[in-house]
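Design request, tokens follow.
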């Protein structure tokens, strides 16, 4: 239990009605979870407004309420009322205070950008573990620390979950934690109150514009993360991305850059590439990695740069990098029994898909057939659907359009929108099979020795979301099962 007056420290309070010298059992923002002695924070969510559930929270035993506006029909004096301009921000600060500010007791590094967040954070987690440090991970795929692994539900969890995980990590002796920071997480104030020792910007391209409305708004949200970094932290950005310098404009943190093209503090170059891996030179030292593609060269360079800033030696970092394998669902390769190559990748934006296909193009001989199976998610950014299809058809020999996570939409309607982006000269390459497993099987049946199949869009996900249900579905597992049956 914590004193209400203590966990309110740092919250921008407009008014208080009642005494704050009271013990609070827990902080909640879901009225259904409130029990006797809890503090309920009413936030305006994407679908529901918590202010409509204040009375329910009081009925369930809430001792105090934090809200932006006290409801007119709540005249009870049995609870403490705290009003604030931004209850989302208040929730994050309250959560940090309630768990004794765990982020200040750990070296927390946040990674943001359209693509690469999961790969960079996951590789950093593995690298520091191999270097002998107790290390934590907060990623799209999972939360990891001290042998524990918890499946993730959001790229950036809610503030209570974040701080609870960090508190558990501190208790377990974790020294470093690497965390994905999504644009939604920044915009919804989920990272307020956290103390970061560093921030990383990977890149920026078309994504989440259904939420942010336009690219400028999306970019500006990302920049807020760097604007908030303290001067004791470092801010590392991709110098080859035109938005990299923009991220650093107003940061108080130590500014650093990495890149493959122009001037940067940390540089890399691809010397050799094949489906088994690539040879890089990073800051004038060669290293072989099983990861592939220019996008992974950027990811590994970011990992190297962070490791240097956190005190690892160059030799130790490169030695461990050479041992790191692919992150699940990120350019994950499988060689079929008849010696074709299947690649499963999370690419779900036009830019990410183009990066994967360009990587394949650099390695392939053009004597084989490249087939891409791809879909787009339902109830999400519709503008990217024709762009995804255009990229797939332009850079593949054959394309099968299929379902991704259709959610509440008709998969056939999603494919209709995708096909609008296909150039007339590429249309003959395309086929539509809305059932994803059938699409993958159709592609596998055509594979000959040396051929390449890209299954894009879902990567690490082990489910399909259809009409409110999450049904088991793992691209990599299904590919292996089908190919073992066929060949």
């Amino acid at each position: 239990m914590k004193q209400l007056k203590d966990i309110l420290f740092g919250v921008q309070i407009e008014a208080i009605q009642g005494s704050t010298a009271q013990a609070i059992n827990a902080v909640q923002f879901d009225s259904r979870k409130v029990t006797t002695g809890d503090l309920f924070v009413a936030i305006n969510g994407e679908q529901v407004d918590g202010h409509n559930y204040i009375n329910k929270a009081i009925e369930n035993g809430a001792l105090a309420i934090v809200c932006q506006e006290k409801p007119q029909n709540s005249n009870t004096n049995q609870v403490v009322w705290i009003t604030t301009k931004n209850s989302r921000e208040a929730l994050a600060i309250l959560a940090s205070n309630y768990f004794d500010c765990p982020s200040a007791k750990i070296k927390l590094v946040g990674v943001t950008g359209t693509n690469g967040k999961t790969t960079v954070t996951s590789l950093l987690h593995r690298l520091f573990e191999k270097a002998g440090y107790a290390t934590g991970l907060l990623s799209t795929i999972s939360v990891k620390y001290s042998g524990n692994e918890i499946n993730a539900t959001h790229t950036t969890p809610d503030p209570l979950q974040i701080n609870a995980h960090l508190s558990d990590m501190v208790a377990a002796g974790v020294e470093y934690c690497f965390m994905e920071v999504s644009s939604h997480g920044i915009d919804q104030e989920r990272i307020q109150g956290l103390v970061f020792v560093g921030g990383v910007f990977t890149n920026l391209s078309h994504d989440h514009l259904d939420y942010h409305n336009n690219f400028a708004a999306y970019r500006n949200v990302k920049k807020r993360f760097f604007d908030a970094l303290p001067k004791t932290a470092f801010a590392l950005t991709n110098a080859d991305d035109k938005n990299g310098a923009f991220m650093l404009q107003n940061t108080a943190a130590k500014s650093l850059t990495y890149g493959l093209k122009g001037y940067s503090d940390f540089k890399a170059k691809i010397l050799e590439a094949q489906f088994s891996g690539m040879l890089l030179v990073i800051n004038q030292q060669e290293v072989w990695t099983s990861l592939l593609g220019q996008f992974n060269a950027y990811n590994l360079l970011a990992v190297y740069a962070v490791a240097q800033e956190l005190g690892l030696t160059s030799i130790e970092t490169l030695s461990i990098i050479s041992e790191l394998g692919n992150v699940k669902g990120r350019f994950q390769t499988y060689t079929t029994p008849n010696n074709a190559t299947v690649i499963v990748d999370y690419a779900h934006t036009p830019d990410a898909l183009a990066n994967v296909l360009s990587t394949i193009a650099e390695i392939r001989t053009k004597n084989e057939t490249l087939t891409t199976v791809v879909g787009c998610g339902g109830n999400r950014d519709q503008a990217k659907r024709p762009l995804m299809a255009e990229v797939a058809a332009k850079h593949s020999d054959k394309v099968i359009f299929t379902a991704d996570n259709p959610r509440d939409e008709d998969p056939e309607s999603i494919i209709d929108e995708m096909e609008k982006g296909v150039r007339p000269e590429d249309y003959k390459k395309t086929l539509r099979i809305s059932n994803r497993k059938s699409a993958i099987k159709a592609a596998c049946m055509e594979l000959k020795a040396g051929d390449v199949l890209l299954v894009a869009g879902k990567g690490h996900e082990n489910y399909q979301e259809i009409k409110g249900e999450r049904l088991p579905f793992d691209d990599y597992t299904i590919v292996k099962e089908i190919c073992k049956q066929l060949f």
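Comment from the thread starter after seeing the answer: thanks! The radius of gyration is 24 Å.
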